[in-house]
Amino acid sequence: MWDNLWDQSPYCVESRNHLQSPNCFPPGNFNSLLSLNFSLLLLFQILVKSPERKKDLFQAMNPQLNKPNSNLLLTPEDEQKMITEVRETIKKHKSIKKMRECRPDEFSRFCCDGSISRYLRARNWNVKKAVKMLETSLIWRMNYKPEEICWEHVAAEAETGKIYRSSYRDKNGRAVLVLRPRFQNSNSTRSQIKYLVYCMENAILNSPSDQEQMIWLIDFQGFNLSNISIKSTKETAHILQDHYPERLGLAILYNPPKFFEPFYKVVKPFLEPKTANKVKFVYADDPNTKTIMDNLFCMDELESAFGGKDEENFDIMKYAEKMKEDDAKRIALHRGESGSETASSMPIANPDSDTEKLSDTNSIMTNVDEARKVSCTT
């Protein structure tokens, strides 16, 4: 649907004209650039998650069909009523009976108020569509078992530092995932997605109890068109928009190719203001955009590659140790099972709280050193 809407719009012509202009790219690269164009479209498809937003996009591309947009004004009581309705409806679905019976804690975590609220927001508070989306996610989690992915399963994908959770958060307490496309080291879409899922689960696990979103900090230093994989990008969009709704708080494109921003300006009018503001362009040589980093991060903690003062580079050995510690913490939270007394004494998942609200992260981290010996047995 997205591709058809884009192709039918006059803005697509404007984008193609810009891409084909001699001042935009050197000759002979247009086929590769079409792949990049498609990948960028998928990025925006992640942002425009719901059918309601795609309908708004269609109306924006066809002004003659525009109608006044009626935004829902819900009271907290209305929202709670919808959350309860989703929960009670999903319990009756036979498709997730196995999950309820075999993995009741996992079911409870994703049918808590916070989780259901995200699915409702992603579907513009449409109960029927939110139920369908949540059901699909629960079936996916039952089969894919993302909470059982351990470091030893993804270490080969991680060794170049193409994606990792930073040791710092932004000033709002959001976890930060650093992405460096130039360090892609795998041709396996399955392995790439498995590592992405591992990183998403890890970022959620390490988020404070009052924060459900994260930051994506994308470093385009050394980027070239060979880093683009349509298949991987499409699968990434599918995983993020269908199974991690409302998790992306901000995507910072650091030193992207100059043609990224003009393309985004073409798409931006079709997005809701809240959605459009989730993408920020930052250039090391532009003082105006560098203030974005100053406002978001403590510069003493931020890596020098992003204009900060921390000169330490990604160290796979140190990162591996940190991830093993997090695996131990996750085992304690998700299963309540551990090979050590310390890990067993860690707080167990509360069925009435969201995944990232399972316990006080700061409290858990005080026990991490003692739990390092806990290994993943799956």
Automatic annotation (TrEMBL):
PANTHER family: F16L1.9 PROTEIN (PTHR45824:SF6), GH16843P (PTHR45824). SUPFAM superfamilies: CRAL/TRIO domain, CRAL/TRIO N-terminal domain. Residues 153-314 form the CRAL-TRIO domain. InterPro entries: CRAL-TRIO_dom, CRAL-TRIO_dom_sf, CRAL/TRIO_N_dom, CRAL/TRIO_N_dom_sf, PI_Transfer_CRAL-TRIO. SMART domains: SEC14. PROSITE patterns: CRAL_TRIO. Residues 369-378 have a biased composition (Basic and acidic residues). One of its GO terms (molecular function) is phosphatidylinositol transfer activity. Residues 335-378 are annotated as: Disordered. This is CRAL-TRIO domain-containing protein. CDD domains: SEC14.
